[in-house]
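Lab notebook, bench 4. Continuing the backlog of folding jobs that were queued last week. Each job is logged with the same field layout so the records can be merged later without manual cleanup. Today's entry covers SIS domain-containing protein, a 241-residue chain. Filled in by technician R.K.

JOB TYPE: sequence-to-structure
TARGET: SIS domain-containing protein
LENGTH: 241
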Amino acid sequence: MTGSDYGNLVRTHLTRVEQHNSSALDDVAELVLAAVQADGTILTAGAGHSLAAVAETFYRAGGLACVRPIYHPELLPMHGAISSTSAERRSGLAGEVLREAGLAPHDVLFVFSTSGVNHYPVELALEAANAGCPVVAVTSVSASAQAPRRAGTTLAEVATVVLDNLVPPGDSTYPVGAPVTAAVSTLATTFLWNLLMVRLLDKATEQGVQLPLWRSANVEGGDAANAEMLRHYQTRIPQLG
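JOB STATUS: finished
OUTPUT FIELD FOLLOWS
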């Protein structure tokens, strides 16, 4: 295998991800559509590089306006690489973050964590489930199976629905047989999120539901189109300020 084959490797992986998650994507789209119809909030959370997926869900062109990112500065590697790993493994942080955000049964919590074994993602899911809030895990079941169970269980085991990004243990994909580079988790996870957005739009259209979708601020009329949604959601989503 040569570097020129890497694109084929990624395309093959994304095709597998789409096929594997076909049924689960329908289930998640129903959960999210119900939350939108109930004027609920879609909360999205992750740690480390999984925060790239959280950024994908929030305040971007074509995205849902009712998304609230769950975030703590200690979890971002750019604020301290070693300390971010420690924070993800620390019990109790998830509870602090969720108490600040608030949860309701008509909300949906997405937890992005490829390994799915550290305290932060697992405790996010447990706290939300205890509050009666559905939890969608975007994770790798195979990576979780081989990782140390630091929290005693895995994100996949405690979630309401699992979207499996099929990322191999260690995340790297190249070269095949002895991978040392080219992590695929960010590509696979953001692909899953956008597959969900497509399913959601189709279901909403079928049911005559108008989704609150952001327009690009860099196209004519974008700011005006977004103004009403900002007024509606800004009080409950402070990150929109």
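OBSERVATION: The radius of gyration is 18 Å.
SIGNED: R.K.
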